[in-house]
């Protein structure tokens, strides 16, 4: 009745506990994109069906590839750094006995720096994760993919646990990677921005997260998250600006004086 799909790359620190948390499913699909660690071996040892691809088309297309590998009527999509708590597992099984919708959103509780983040725009962070296989499909976007549902969507009264970062360095590295993908995506859509626009976007991001979304209630960790998010905005739009002007990173030597 239920297929779980997970996309991976070098997730050996997470994959075992992730798969353990969805052991109630009828099928677990792992689509790996070139892991160089023990991700695939650990996934197989946990009973998952592991598939490989060497091409990385972006998060949305990759999850659609995993979706195409699922064989059951219902699909639960989770990331390797997420866990399905026991209460959520029970709730999903109850709902699927008599589903009243074509898809369900799930809240996601995330942690950072040893603290569960309850503000900063991180909670409840509802996302469609459980859906009928023939009623849902991921947007074909490089980052910030979401499920497009053809039908009725309801909320599950349960939440995922999310362990996105094991260090500040990981957060900074992911922010840099995501900003590059987002900048390319904006560039492909023909978006443009100026230097003052870059500054305004970064400033507004900090204000939105730390003040409007009350990140200050998440303590020092909330301040760090707002600051890094602001930097991520700065990176994204600076990269877009550089893409638009087709920056030559090796200009001709200056004329001798």
Give me the secondary-structure category.
alpha/beta
| Biggest sheet architecture | 9 strands, mixed
CATH top level class name of the largest domain:
Alpha Beta
The overall pLDDT average reads: 95
The second-level CATH architecture of the largest domain is: Alpha-Beta Complex
**N-to-C SSE string, H for helix and E for strand:** EHEHEHEEHEEEEEEHHH
User: How many domains make up the coordinates?
Assistant: 2
In the CATH hierarchy, the third-tier topology of the largest domain is known as Spore Coat Polysaccharide Biosynthesis Protein SpsA, Chain A
Counting DSSP E segments of at least 2 residues, the number of strands comes to: 11
N-to-C span: 76 Å
Q: Which range best describes the helical content: under 10%, 10-25%, 25-40%, 40-55%, 55-70% or over 70%?
A: 25-40%
CATH evolutionary superfamily of the largest domain: Spore Coat Polysaccharide Biosynthesis Protein SpsA, Chain A
3D architecture notes:
By secondary structure, the chain is an alpha/beta fold. The chain has 2 domains: 2-162, Spore Coat Polysaccharide Biosynthesis Protein SpsA, Chain A; 168-244, no CATH class. 40% of the residues lie in helices and 22% in strands. The chain is built from 7 helices and 11 strands. The protein has helices spanning 15-21, 39-45, 59-69, 86-97, 168-188, 195-212, 219-244, and strands at 2-8, 27-32, 49-52, 74-77, 82-83, 103-112, 115-116, 127-132, 136-138, 147-149, 153-162. Strands 1, 2, 3, 4, 5, 6, 7, 8 and 11 form a 9-stranded mixed β-sheet that branches. Helix 6 packs antiparallel against helix 7 (219-244). The longest helix has 26 residues, at 219-244. The radius of gyration is 20 Å and the shape is globular. It starts with a strand and ends in a 13-residue tail after the last helix. The mean pLDDT is 95.
């Amino acid at each position: 009745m239920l297929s779980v799909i997970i996309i991976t790359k070098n997730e050996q620190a997470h994959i075992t506990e992730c798969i353990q948390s969805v052991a109630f499913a009828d099928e677990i699909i792992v689509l790996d994109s070139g892991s160089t660690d023990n991700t695939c071996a650990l996934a197989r040892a946990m009973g998952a069906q592991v598939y490989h691809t060497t091409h990385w088309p972006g998060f949305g297309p990759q999850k659609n590839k995993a979706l195409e590998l699922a064989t059951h009527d219902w699909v639960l999509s989770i990331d390797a750094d997420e866990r399905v708590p026991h209460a959520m597992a029970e709730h999903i099984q109850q709902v699927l006995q008599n589903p009243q919708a074509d898809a369900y959103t799930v809240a996601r509780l995330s942690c950072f720096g040893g603290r569960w983040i309850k503000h900063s725009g991180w909670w409840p962070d509802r996302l469609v994760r459980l859906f009928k296989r023939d009623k849902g499909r991921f947007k074909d976007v490089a980052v910030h993919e979401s499920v497009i549902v053809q039908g009725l969507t309801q909320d599950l009264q349960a939440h995922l646990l999310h362990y996105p970062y094991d260090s500040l360095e990981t957060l900074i590295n992911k922010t840099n990677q995501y900003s590059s993908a987002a900048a390319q995506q904006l560039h492909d859509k023909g978006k443009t921005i100026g230097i003052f626009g870059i500054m305004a976007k970064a400033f507004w991001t900090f204000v939105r997260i730390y003040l409007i979304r009350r990140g200050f209630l998440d303590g020092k960790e909330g301040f760090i998250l707002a600051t890094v998010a602001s930097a991520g905005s700065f990176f994204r739009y600076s990269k877009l600006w550089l893409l638009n002007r087709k920056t030559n990173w090796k200009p001709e030597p200056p004329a001798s004086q």
